[in-house]
Specification:
- By secondary structure, the protein is α+β, with helices and mostly antiparallel strands.
- It has two domains: about 10-55 and about 115-225, no CATH class; about 55-115, no CATH class.
- Helix content is about 35%, strand content about 20%.
- It is built from seven helices and nine strands; from the N terminus they run ββααααββαβααββββ.
- It has helices at about 50-55, 55-70, 85-90, 95-100, 115-135, 155-165, 175-185; strands at about 25-30, 45-50, 105, 110-115, 145-150, 195, 200-205, 210-215, 220-225.
- The strands form three sheets. It has a five-stranded antiparallel beta sheet with strand order 5-9-8-7-6, with helices on one face. Strands 1-2 form a two-stranded antiparallel sheet.
- A hairpin with a 3-residue loop joins strand 6 and strand 7.
- Helix 2 crosses helix 3 and helix 2 packs across helix 5.
- The longest helix has 20 residues, at about 115-135.
Length: about 230
């Protein structure tokens, strides 16, 4: 990813982008647990507090392991899992047990997982807040709407609607990375930004409403909307 320095009002990002507290550390968006090594250069980084930085870790590991276990079809660690997820499952038997308990097989022999949506949505909201802050120079304290669905299970119309960047009549925030991409680098806003192929991509749309879409592992399609 090309790193672009924002030139907008520094006061917008003066606090933790997740809770507004004093930002005594920084956080990568997305977390490395959702990516494979070697990590991409210039990963998005946002200001945050230590409390938020630490509080999301377990849910992020859960979300990363859940997506991988769904794709593999098993919650037991195997070489078919991503190396990072295999280690997590081996080192955290309690998490493996949680995922195994969520696993079932239907009448057609298809493996299903019943996710803990609260944990998944907690991670998705955290990621969306980070992308809105990093890309759009926007921090909205209001509660947004959150939707999460398996990308391969969307019908053609829903898939096309999700993949197509929304039409907006607003320019990105002055000085934001999205504005720099648009005017200096000719990148349409909004547009999909690939952090790591097949692992993670996102789209951040300015205006009313502010919208962030995320795809994790080319499996989990997520959308967060503020001001809908």
């Amino acid at each position: 990813m090309k790193q672009i320095q924002p030139t907008g009002d520094e006061r917008v990002l003066a606090g933790c982008v997740y809770c507004g507290a004093f930002p005594d550390t920084r956080d990568h968006v997305p977390s490395g647990v959702l990516l494979d090594k070697p990590f991409p250069d210039n990963l998005p980084v946002v200001p945050c507090c230590s409390s938020c930085n630490n509080s999301f870790s377990l849910d992020e590991e859960y979300c990363a392991a859940l997506v991988d276990c769904v794709l593999v079809g098993s919650a037991q660690p195997t070489p078919r899992h991503r190396e990072k997820v295999q280690r997590i499952l081996e080192w955290q038997p309690a998490l493996t047990a949680v995922l195994e308990a969520a696993r079932s097989v239907d009448a057609d022999g298809q493996t299903l997982f019943e996710p803990d949506l609260e944990r998944v949505e907690n991670v998705v909201l955290k990621l969306a807040k980070g992308h809105a802050a990093f890309e759009l120079h926007t921090v909205d304290p209001e509660e947004p709407s959150i939707s999460v669905a398996p990308l391969p299970l969307l019908d053609d119309a829903s898939r096309e609607a999700f993949e197509t960047p929304p039409e907006v009549c607003f320019f990105p925030e002055v000085g934001s990375r999205a504005m720099h991409r648009m005017f200096e680098h000719g990148v349409a806003s909004p547009s999909w930004i690939v952090v790591q192929p097949d692992r993670y991509r996102f789209l951040a749309s300015p205006g009313l409403p502010v919208l962030v879409r995320i795809v994790i592992g080319e499996y989990l399609a997520c959308e967060v909307v503020w001001g809908e």
